[in-house]
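Our preliminary data section would be incomplete without showing what the modeling component actually yields. Below, a chain of 120 amino acids is followed by its predicted structure, encoded as tokens that our downstream tools consume directly.
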Amino acid sequence: MDIAFPYQLSPQGTTATAASADDHIAQMLEQLLFTRPGERVNRPTFGCGLLDLVFSPGSPEVAAALSITASAAVQQELSDVVKIQSVDVTWAAGTLQVVLSYLVLATGAAATQTFSVPAG
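Predicted structure:
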């Protein structure tokens, strides 16, 4: 049973679960990207600091730093679930966008998730 993110209740009043294993993996990636290191008391290294770079000027150097940081965070926290193929970071129209391409280790299936946040 994989608890849904964000936490919510099902129509039956119980804890909602993710619709599928693929949805759960996407939710875990989202949590990892949007959590600041140190934000979780019991897991101080969890997170990648994506939100700390939202107000940085959109430059190739910042994009490269974020790509490396995101890849390292996924490798550290979710290497038993996914293998990162690529991380593409772009700033466009006031939005910071991260595109993760990865392999799901349990099935060998390739997947891509896009995560966006308004940039400052």
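DSSP finds two helices and three strands in the chain. The chain has a mean pLDDT of 88. Preliminary results of this kind motivate Aim 1 of the renewal.
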